[in-house]
Design goal:
The chain is of the alpha/beta class. The protein is built from seven helices and four strands, in the order E-H-E-H-H-H-E-H-E-H-H. The protein is globular, with a radius of gyration of 15 Å. The structure holds adenosine-5'-diphosphate (ADP).
Length: 148
């Protein structure tokens, strides 16, 4: 498998660049933000808990995200590889990812880091907020997300 992690601040273009890499290398996409937003939309228990963190711009607790990651990955493990977008975001998550992949006989092959100045991120996120409908694309929450 070709497994890639994509890093970058909120609004740095992780989703957009992931799509390009996926198209070029035929990979599968795992965006923990998308996974959590789907849970919120479906009004699951996990979604309710996640919403209370996401709308404040805080990270969802590690246990919750680590628990669902393996089941999301296992649905894609017969693919050419996976791009992890928005995960890992903490050291425990990085350790859990390494362990989860090694238990499955695979590993991370590359990390792509997108570097964008904070002022530019704020402009992009405020613009995105006009169309995204995301509860966290507003001025106060954007600042909190950048700090986190
Ligand atoms: P962005 O990079 O624009 O903040 P994401 O979709 O990656 O967008 O994340 C949105 C929110 O979802 C984060 O602010 C956080 O609350 C939650 N989230 C996403 N991924 C993780 C993660 N790996 N660990 C904890 N929380 C996460």
């Amino acid at each position: 498998m070709l497994n890639i992690v994509i890093f970058g601040g909120p609004g740095s273009g992780k989703g957009t660049q992931s799509e390009k890499i996926i198209e070029k290398y035929g990979l599968e996409h795992i965006s923990t933000g998308d996974v959590l937003r789907a849970e919120i939309k479906n009004k699951t228990e996990l979604g309710k808990i996640a919403d209370s963190y996401i709308s404040k711009g805080q990270l969802v607790p590690d246990e919750l995200i680590i628990d669902i990651l393996a089941s999301v990955f296992d649905k894609k493990k017969d693919s050419k590889g996976v791009i992890f977008d928005g995960f890992p975001r903490t050291i425990p998550q990085a350790e859990a990812l390494k362990k989860m992949l090694s238990e499955r006989g695979t590993s991370i092959n590359a990390v792509v880091a997108l570097e964008v100045a904070d002022e530019e991120l704020v402009i992009r996120l405020l613009n995105r907020g006009k169309i995204s409908g995301r509860s966290d694309d507003n001025k106060e929450t954007i600042q909190q997300r950048l700090n986190v």
